[in-house]
Specification:
The protein is mainly alpha-helical. Helices cover about 65% and strands about 0% of the residues.
Length: about 120
């Protein structure tokens, strides 16, 4: 394993120290390309930054293209004909679904509380 020395601000150093053993994995995630196409992440970010109403949050769904891809991945997974890359893609869709469920249930209060504007 390589050792890298960098200079960082003290406040960032404190935050990184709290990450402990998770730091190498978090760095890996930062430098690797996203598992899903960029437009999938953009779709989700555009929705979240639009300050959606509770009704819009409840109605939020993947695009038809995303639904079709997810269906394909699930079928391949069930038949045992899924590649490691496709497994990673399926896992990413599952993480996104979990976040959407948390958002819809109000478990992400900083996204679901009314704005004061």
């Amino acid at each position: 394993m390589a050792t890298i020395t960098i200079e960082i601000p003290d406040d960032l150093s404190e935050q990184l120290t709290q990450l402990g053993d998770r730091l190498p994995e978090l760095l890996r995630q930062c430098v690797q390309q996203g598992v899903l196409p960029a437009h999938v992440y953009r779709y989700i970010l555009d929705f979240l930054t639009s300050q959606p109403t509770p009704e819009q949050i409840a109605a939020f769904r993947p695009t038809p293209e995303m639904q079709e891809r997810l269906s394909t991945l699930l079928t391949k997974n069930q038949s045992g004909n899924i590649t490691p890359t496709e497994i990673a893609e399926l896992n990413e869709y599952e993480r996104i679904e979990h976040l959407a469920i948390m958002l819809k249930l109000g478990n992400l209060p900083y996204l679901t509380r009314p704005s004061n504007s």
